[in-house]
């Protein structure tokens, strides 16, 4: 979160913080709805839970790889230290 706020201009820090918080809340609501649907529509509870956990792990790993790639690009451009 600090990187998002720091990259915004000083007079737009409040807007950047608000946009970040709204996107986080919307993502959480969509995730709960999606995973709840997967659990409810599966034949067995554990099948839906396993699928939801696998999707959550894949999303987490994808976000991690994207963050590492962004830091490396920024460090190569001289912006931030890796």
UniProtKB/TrEMBL annotation:
**Transmembrane residues, as ranges?**
48-68
User: Keywords in UniProt for this one?
Assistant: Membrane, Transmembrane, Transmembrane helix
InterPro entries linked: MFS_trans_sf
Q: Which SUPFAM superfamilies match?
A: MFS general substrate transporter
Q: What is this protein called?
A: Major facilitator superfamily (MFS) profile domain-containing protein
């Amino acid at each position: 979160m600090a990187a998002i706020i720091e990259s915004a201009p000083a007079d737009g820090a409040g807007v950047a913080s608000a946009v970040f918080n709204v996107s986080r809340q919307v993502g959480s609501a969509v995730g709960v709805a999606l995973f709840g649907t997967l659990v409810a529509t599966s034949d067995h509870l554990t099948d839906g839970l396993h699928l939801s956990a696998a999707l959550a792990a894949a999303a987490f790993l994808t976000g991690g790889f994207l963050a590492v790639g962004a830091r490396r690009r920024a460090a190569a451009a001289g912006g931030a230290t890796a």
